Amino acid sequence: MTKVIAITGKGGTGKTAVAALLIRYLSKKGKFLLAVDADADTNLPETLGCENVKTIGDAKEFLQVEITNPRPDNPDMNKESILKSKVYEIIEEMPGYDLLVMGRPEGSGCYCYVNNLLRGIMDKLITNYDVVVIDAEAGLEHFSRKIIRDIDDLIVVTDASRRGFRTAERIRELVSELDSNVGNIHVIANKVTDNNRNKIEELAGDLKLSLLGTIPLDSKIEEFDIGGVPLTELPDDSVAVLEIEKIAKKLGF
């Protein structure tokens, strides 16, 4: 059975880096893995070393035009087949995993019909993989539209600030309001130092948030980011890599 993990959090907390490191770990473990960038900012491909990617947004725009202005020579085209072929075209085959980028928000007009088609396609696509790791935006747009229906583990990445933990609390409330199929909600604290570790654990306890792990501040991540080097190339002795291994094991890997 496919395990679906979604990673979210407010901007600047390093959620995309956490997603990339989890993808790095799982791909090295030989899992048949689908990485999904569901954030409109689309930072995951660059973090993984994949450039010039096509997006689901492009495919949806194409189909929306076809629906709004059907071609006279092909009025009865099979729209689901067209969208499905576009989705499979967009999937990037990377070393150790596949990558699918959702892309920009929808344009004008109602995309309900297109989203219904995409929902069915994603349901079937996900079952082809052992694990799906989703880099999601904090607003959980794709979950609210139920493009991706079932999440086994939702991970909220926070920094050492109270605002970051409040964001985690709001996301937990949003998930409850959306009546989403989310199994477990966890928090990962990122960029942790010896000076703030105890405070972070206190904050998590006060807000009754499940603290899955604390990733130490890792200078190598900043160094790789500035140099444009994919985080998948971080050395095995990186302190962030070592903590992600512990986190993955807590998730059942």
TrEMBL record:
> Where is the CobQ/CobB/MinD/ParA nucleotide binding domain positioned along the sequence?
5-225
CDD domains in UniProt: CooC1
Record's keyword terms, sorted: ATP-binding, Nucleotide-binding
What Gene3D superfamilies does the entry give?
A: P-loop containing nucleotide triphosphate hydrolases
Instruction: List the InterPro entries.
Output: CobQ/CobB/MinD/ParA_Nub-bd_dom, CooC, P-loop_NTPase, ParA/MinD_ATPase
Its Gene Ontology cellular component terms are: cytoplasmic side of plasma membrane; cytosol
Superkingdom of the source species = Archaea
**GO annotation (BP), single:** negative regulation of cell division
Q: What is this protein called?
A: CO dehydrogenase accessory protein CooC (Nickel insertion)
Source organism per UniProt:
Methanosarcina siciliae T4/M
